[in-house]
Amino acid sequence: MKVVVGISGASGAIYGIRLLEALKQVEIESHLVLSDTARITIEYETNYKVEDVIGMATMVYENRNLAAAISSGSFKVDGMIVAPCSIKTLSGIANSYNNDLLTRAADVTLKERRKLVLMVRETPLHLGHLNHMTAVTQMGGIILPPVPSFYHLPITLDDIVNHTVQKALDQLGIEANLFNRWDGIEQRI
Question: Would the annotation count 103 as a binding residue?
Fold first, then answer.
């Protein structure tokens, strides 16, 4: 299995990092592209260096390289996850504005009818944001904002991050066992 991972410059770089860690853990080939601002956000928001994050991926591409393997539909992958996905990246994908590799790879994923999962990281949302999300959804993409849930009784921030990352992986049929799944509540009668 091969998964393209895009990390944009939105807040929440840890989602992309944890995604790469999970893919490595379950031995799935990852193809990474970082936006220029992702490189800044990674080092600002986390204890990771960009080189550490790059080292987690099977293959890494420069965002300016529109001739990279992942820019073509003939390069077979099983899907793509953008974590986090900035509004700028969302807008580029929604409008098929392929000015960099991250948006081009997402566009290719959609045109090839492969799974594209966008962890859109913004709040509050205005109508323009919602329209872009609607457009991507109509093209077959999946909008999966990192919205925490609490039924798995998280204790740490990592627990919350892991839950969202596993939800994204679920869209591609990948089990990394990152949280305890809901199995119902016994109700007394």
Answer: no
151 is in an annotated binding site: yes
The answer on whether 113 is annotated among ligand-binding residues is no
Q: ∠ CA 152-180-186 to the nearest 5 degrees?
A: 70
Residue type, 112: E
Task: Tell me if 91 is assigned to a ligand binding site.
Answer: no
| Residue 46 annotated in ligand binding | no
What is the three-class DSSP state of 142? Answer: strand
11 is in an annotated binding site: yes
61 annotated as ligand-binding = no
**Is 167 annotated for ligand binding?**
yes
Query: Beta partners for 143?
Result: 118
pLDDT in tens, the chain (189 residues): 999 999 999 999 999 999 999 999 999 999 999 999 999 999 999 999 999 999 999 999 999 999 999 999 999 999 999 999 999 999 999 999 999 999 999 999 999 999 999 999 999 999 999 999 999 999 999 999 999 999 999 999 999 999 999 999 999 999 999 999 998 888 776
pTM > 0.90: yes or no: yes
With contact defined as beta carbons under 8 Å apart, do 59 and 92 qualify?
no
**Domains with residue ranges and CATH for the chain:** 2-172 (3.40.50.1950)
Q: Is 109 annotated as a binding residue?
A: no
